[in-house]
Amino acid sequence: MKWKPISLAARIVGSVIALDLLLTAVIVAIGVFVASEELQSAFDVSLRSKALSVRALVRYDEDNPTKLIFDATGLPPSNDPVHTDVFSVSLSNGEPISHATGWEGLPSGTRYTSAGFARFRRSGVPFRGIVLRDIPVLDREDESGPPAKITVVYAASLLDMRDRAFRVGVYLSAAGLALLVPMAWLTAWVMRRSLSPLNDLASRAGGISVRQWAFDAPPRAKAIPELAPLSEALELLVARLHESFGRQREFTSDLAHELKTSVAIIKSSAQVLLRRPRSTEEYVTGLEGLLGDCESMEALVERMLRLARIEQWSEEGKRKDLPLTSLLATCDAAVSRVAALATAKNVDITVHSAGNPQLRADPEDLELVWVNLFDNAVRHSSPGGTVMVRISASVDHEAIVCVEDSGSGISAEDLPHIFERFRRGGNSDGQLSNGFGLGLAICKAIVEAYGGTIEVKSDQGKGTKVFVRIPAESAAAGASAETPVKAR
């Protein structure tokens, strides 16, 4: 059998009712305790008063002035007619004077208090008594001598007092339960009203769909301090999701366009090749061209797969088993890979390192970042220009790589979009640069996957600076080094 989930409101109301029941129980317990204490205090006063009344019933015999007699006709009445009060009167030396019928004195298991009171059970009934020791007789026949001293014990049943305390507990419990019913209803009503802004917020959020991205939190939810952060978070989340889906659609559209363009080029080249009979050399040349177009498409697919892998890795978290990698070594390897392009454009690449930071990273990932950055810097530099690479480490274990070129810079309109996929900026002569527009997107994804940041600063006509900051294990500081790569 599948149980229906309990709502939050029902849980809160149930918790409040349980707390009310606990509070009622505590109040009843306190009330019964206070009532018992007050009743016992009054009971003790009554016991003392009756014991003193019994004392007053002891007097000297008129015929024999040395003998004490007890007048039982003046005994105080018992509060409990079934379990009557008991008493005993004796001289200080223990000689009995009088006692209640069937009373043989305090039993052996009697418990005494410091105030002279005693507790015991008689025929299974709880009694409480008072013991007045060595008190003088009030009736004095011979005024010249000291009065005789007696001991008075008086005890009464506790059943009546306990019944009264029990009735107090019953009345308090009945009153608490009677108040609990309207309080539970009032609590449920207040909870429904209090949670209505949350229900409105959930209803608005439930209306979000692929076709409906508009989300505006209810004003009542925004006005509640506890719900205001949730409302703002939901609005921000929906906005980011909308933006993310928009980027995803744009990326899919751009990717489809790039692939369609590549397929169209291959198809048109094949059609031109088959349009008329050609010589073997022409077929070989055409097939080589087709092979180059296929390699270009393969490179596009490979870059997309790498970008997807990096983004997945970034979402899952950085791996802990990566080896320590020399940042300077990856930069030197990247310089070697772009040396041919630098030589062809007559551009110098100089690496200046103030130390050799060690990173826990995949060397191929770092090398790919530097290759893309160095390749862009060389392509956008004017012939005879210089690309300066500076490597340093901050005091908080952060490796910093700055790549500065002497090119024409990036326009203010293009600068905010340079990390977007399939975004190709213009080169120095105003023409779109070659490539797929994925290089900087891949760089950003790799750097952020390693917990770093990448930033570009550029002034048109004054060159571009790219700053990469990545957490490092150690600075490995050493002597500064420069590795120039010049055009041949």
Care to describe what's here?
The structure is a single chain. By secondary structure, this protein is of the alpha+beta class. It has 3 domains: 8-166, 2-Layer Sandwich (Beta-Lactamase); 228-316, Helix Hairpins (Orthogonal Bundle); 324-485, Heat Shock Protein 90, CATH 3.30.565. It is 48% helix and 19% strand. It has helices at 8-56, 159-206, 219-223, 228-274, 280-316, 327-337, 339-345, 363-379, 439-449; strands at 58-60, 68-70, 86-91, 96-99, 111-112, 117-122, 125-136, 149-157, 324-326, 348-353, 358-360, 386-393, 398-404, 453-458, 464-471, 481-485. The strands form 4 sheets. A 6-stranded antiparallel β-sheet has the order 4-3-8-7-6-5. Helix 5 (280-316) runs parallel beside helix 9 (439-449). The longest helix is centred in the first third of the chain and has 49 residues, at 8-56. The radius of gyration is 50 Å and the shape is rod-shaped. The model is unreliable at 427-432 and 477-481 (pLDDT under 50).
